[in-house]
Amino acid sequence: MPETTLTAHTGRELGSSSTRRLRAEGKIPGVVYGHGTDPISVAVVGREFQIAMSGESGLNTLLSLNVDGTDHLTLARDIQHHPVRNTVSHIDFLIVRRDELISAEVTINLVGEAVEVGHGDGIVDQQLFTLHIKAKPTEIPNSVDIDISSLTIGGALHVSDILIPAGVELETDLGATVVAGNPPRVQSAADAGEAGEAAAPAADAESEEG
User: Which end of the chain is least crowded, N or C, by CB within 10 Å?
Assistant: First the structure.
């Protein structure tokens, strides 16, 4: 996975007023830390950060962060957002090494077609959307796929059914359900109705006995 270059500006003042001023200038405050480095208060241009993070790797984009002429290999972590505007309000840049295993979260894609579920008017119910993994920074996959072609109504596919790339370790439980084949909603409602009708005579009988 190639890294994206991003320039971080140091020397920013701390405090709410200076932070508001930075954001008004289109910059995002942040901190660089990790591997024994003293935390460095920085700011990055918001537009440049958005462009850097807009690739397929998303939140796992490797950033070559230039801080006062020194490049640090980093990942953007703990990205905070404004509660109303939903704009990025603060970023932690975690310094990483190419040869270390780090934790990451990747998206799960459903591929193929659940033919049997479709023929039975069933519902493909995805229950797990991301996977927690460990991998070297350069080997973090953009996403992982699970083939739902074999899915049936009443059946399920689990984390153990995902094809995991070499060099990637799973942190999510292998038995966790990723996707299930559910019966049609209409059928489910009909079954519930039948169950209710069956319960009614029993209730009437009980009241008569009472």
Answer: C
